[in-house]
User: What shape does this take?
Amino acid sequence: MTHPTPGTPETPSGATRAPLAEGEAPESTPLERVKKAYDLVSDVVSPKTIGIVVAALAIIVAGLVGGWDTVEAVDKDVPTVEAGTPLATGPFEVTLLRAYSTDGIKPAIYPAQGKRYLVVVAAIKASGTEPQWANQLRDVITLSAPGLDQKAIQPTVYRLSDGKIAGQAQPSMTTEVVCVWEQRSSAPIPPTAQLRVDQRSWRQSTLDGSFKRLDPDPIAVVDLPITQLDRP
Amino acid sequence: MIRASRETLLTILLIVAALAVGNVITARLPKADEVANLPFVHTAALGVPVTMRTGTFAVTKVDASPIVGTQLDTAVTGGLFLVLTVDVTASGEPLYPASDDLRIVASDGREFGGRPPVREVCGPAQPGLTLTCMLPVEITPDALAGSRLRLPAANRDIVGPGESEYAEIDLGISADAAAELAGRTTPILLAKPTVKGK
Assistant: This one.
């Protein structure tokens, strides 16, 4: 190994170079060159400005790769299935059968001023070996239609066999139920009821430690043609 | 180099063996939590009274129909309503039997129950007076044979653990009896709770 002679500067790579001549400026490092370049614009480009530009770029890039798409756009990837297809939602197996619009169906649904009802008939069968509350159907079926009552955006669920509020669905037993949404009568009746069906997982909540059906995951979209029922 | 004597080696082996045996024993012994959480089960048969801390209960009759009703209401099912006639005698204070929490447990482990679409509220049963109630449970006919009633001693609180004391009552439904029950079509009128002997 050769050692540089005294007074001969050594470069970072270990190579030696000639001593500086009189008046010659020492060669600057890359960091010093960057600092020198920044000094030229430092009165305009402050660290705050750089932070804002980086944040703006991050937002733009996120938008370009689809990060700002609406939920509806994501839903386009959910498969559309035929009416009558059984769908495993977690608490139940749900089969959406048919849809109606009506001003009321006594004795369960009474006519009301300025309201009509969009009705979906479904068959449910509790998963597992224990009864499941039928009103969990509210959390796994979403109807897209104009003029829905935003205060009652989830349906009320009745038993088709007797018109009672659906209580508990029993295991291995198919129960036909009626899901009812309220719609303003000034809104048009859609030709089809577009229903999104979600699957939910039974897991412990990280907030309060209780077990719940959480994490809705869209698994299917079902389009049911709407038939208008006669007035009650 | 340190040389271990024969006694030292033997001592080490004995300690390791004792730890291993202790570990096996500890693993096989029930844990305190497991024992504390074990349900307290009373078994009985149709017609036989069973006493729990809240009172004495007896299933005296089993009936079935796809249609049950009260004076005001009617419910219809695509399956079957199994209607149990139950005698309830409260032990120390007025008692509502846990009619929404009871379960019919099929021989294959399926459980049926929950609040029925129609019912006559059973209770309060007063201490010393036997109250007779009719409790409907929606069920599939294929679950009838060999089924049992699981009746908790008390209604479940909104919060807290479930009831750990319950009666497990064999309803005595044979395969033939199940077929006969499944074929019944006469609507059942749920009688209002009545005090026995009055």
